[in-house]
Design brief:
Layout lengths: L2 E3 L6 E3 L1 E4 L17 H13 L4 E3 L8 H9 L8 E6 L14 H15 L4 E6 L8 H13 L3 E7 L3 H14 L4 E7 L11 H8 L2 E5 L22 H4 L9 H18 L3 H10 L7 E3 L4 H8 L8 H11 L7 H12 L6
Parallel strand pairs: 3-4, 3-10, 4-5, 5-6, 6-7, 7-8, 8-9
Antiparallel strand pairs: 1-2
Helix pairs in contact: 1-2, 1-10, 2-3, 3-4, 4-5, 8-9, 8-11
Length: about 350
């Protein structure tokens, strides 16, 4: 296992991070997984023994069960890991038990600490943007948590580029703690993040931690064309697929992934994860599992590396749309790059 800086912070995290959305079984989260304490501990032990030091959860995953199970599984290991959890989602019918108000952030942090069985959170992530609460209120509350010693680093997830840049600017203006990382959906079948968010992370020094890098299992190859996957698979159980993409394009990409996997004697999942580890700004890729053999296969990703030719083949098939103003700026760049354009 190799380790990378989380953005430009001094924190080192493993190239793979164990996501624990499958821990617990409350409500619709059971579609993702329904692991009990014994099964959760086994996955954590396998990850830890393989060198993973980065573990990710959220208060809303099975409404606190994931945090509780992860906290128990990390008993005796807490001081050796980087522990991340999130705040934003609704946790009860109580009218203010949702969002990024100062009240909800402060109360949620205390509850997460208790469920995790720890007195500090290494990386506290706002799970998505709150359009109701002013950014100043949210960022001030997060800054207070850092200065109280309850949180050490801050991250965000599922932000537009303008929202993230605005947040960084406000924090700099007030000399508050800044976000050091962005957790965003990123996979071979959905490279939208490269349009604006990856350049922003590179420019501002944020670490990118992709979630659902296998597109909810699609890139493992277990969902055949025109058919259903295994009955216990997430996309088979969901009435509406949460992770959406263009099926025709996705299957063309998967064909190339499987071709490379066959040539190398590795799994399609490893190819897909390996691809993201070669991408700019990526600090760590989140992997989730419901079975030990899934996690063990994912862990082998770090033992080899795709060639430049293989990366290019996958790049060409999965290229994201050239949305405005990218095509305009690419054209304008010719003024500087092409001597014939000079007078």
């Amino acid at each position: 296992m190799q380790y990378r800086q989380l953005g430009k912070s001094g924190l080192l995290v493993s190239e793979l991070c164990l996501g624990t959305m499958s821990f617990g079984s409350a409500g619709s989260w059971a579609n993702v997984g329904s692991l009990d304490e014994t099964a959760a501990k086994r996955l954590v032990d396998i990850a830890f023994d393989a060198g993973i030091n980065f573990f990710d959860t959220a208060d809303v995953y099975s409404f606190g069960q994931s945090e509780q199970l992860l906290g128990k599984a990390l008993k005796g290991k807490r001081d050796h890991v980087v522990l991340a959890t999130k705040v934003r989602g609704r946790m009860s019918p109580e009218i203010n038990d949702v969002g990024l108000s100062k009240r909800h952030i402060m109360e949620s942090c205390e509850k997460s600490l208790k469920r995790l069985g720890t007195d500090y959170i290494d990386l506290y992530i706002v799970h998505s943007f709150d359009f109701m609460t002013p950014l100043e209120e949210t960022l001030s509350a997060l800054n207070d948590l850092v200065h109280q010693g309850k949180v050490r680093y801050l991250g965000c997830s599922n932000y537009f580029a303008w929202q993230l840049m605005k947040a960084l600017s406000i924090s700099e203006k007030h000399n508050w703690e800044k976000f050091v990382s962005l957790q965003a959906y990123y996979s071979l079948v959905a490279r939208d993040v490269e349009i604006e968010l990856v350049p922003l992370c590179q420019d501002q020094g944020l670490g990118l931690t992709p979630w659902s890098p296998l597109a909810a299992g699609f890139l493992t190859g277990k969902y055949p064309r025109g058919g259903k996957g295994p009955a216990d698979a997430r996309r088979s159980k969901e009435t509406r697929n949460f992770i959406q993409f263009d099926d025709d394009k996705a299957y063309a990409i998967l064909d190339e992934v499987q071709r490379i996997a066959t040539e190398r004697g590795v799994s399609a999942a490893q190819v897909s994860l390996n691809y993201l580890l070669r991408k700019p700004a990526v600090s760590s890729v989140l992997v989730g599992a419901t079975k030990p053999e899934q996690l063990q296969d994912n862990l082998k990703t770090v033992e080899w590396q795709l060639s430049d030719e293989e990366i290019k083949a996958l790049d060409d098939l999965s290229v994201p749309p050239r949305l405005y103003p990218k095509w305009m700026l690419d054209s304008s760049r010719l003024d500087r790059d092409n001597p014939q354009m000079r007078r």
